[in-house]
Amino acid sequence: MHGDWISVLLSWWPFVMLIGAYILIVRLNRQRSASGLTAIELCEQQVAETQRTNAILEKIAAALHKDTVN
Fold this sequence. Notes:
The chain has helices spanning 2-30, 39-69. The chain is mainly alpha-helical. The model has no long low-confidence stretch (mean pLDDT 85).
């Protein structure tokens, strides 16, 4: 009898975890930071800033490489 319940709970566990993850993501997205942005918007800003920094660093690396080759 108990084995049946355990097998049902184990078979539903991944589905329950997915629902929990979805609820967590929705709650994080709805929470606003002090700047008024959601967590997703803050992450997107960070990605954009990282891409700009990488582009600048690539230009510096290319200039240094050009100077060492010449």
